[in-house]
Amino acid sequence: MPRRCDTRFFQQSAFFDPEDLLQLKYETLRALEVESYPIAKAARDFGLSRPTIYEAQSQFETRGLEGLLPRKRGPKAAHKVTDAVLEYFKEQVVAGPDLKADELARRVLQRFGVKLHPRTIEKALNARAKRGRLK
Fold this sequence. Notes:
The structure is a single chain. The protein has helices at 21-34, 39-46, 50-63, 83-95, 101-112, 118-130. Helix 1 runs antiparallel to helix 2 (39-46). The chain has 6 helices and no strands. It is mainly α. 55% of the residues lie in helices and 0% in strands. The longest helix is centred in the first third of the chain and has 14 residues, at 21-34. The relative contact order is 0.09.
């Protein structure tokens, strides 16, 4: 659903774009701080929800302008294929180059208690080989 921003705030300059979420959040925060806007009026005028504004305030306080940028959702790094598991892969592949991913998955489950799909192991080994780290 598109935001409904009161575009009169952005008509004064060709630079301002009501579809630019970063700019919209910054201008909302500026209105709150500099012009002492009430949060409900800022939400109405700038087309942002109050929770979005509160979150933007918090992010701006802790991370500055970068905090207003959209962030990738979901996991940021592998949580099962840790460095220790990767090192184990390396040891196992060196010891038995013909070792299949199914067998590696079984060994990882036995050693680390981590259940991995064989395709996950293949991807990890391929990525590691591409970076030249499997040697």
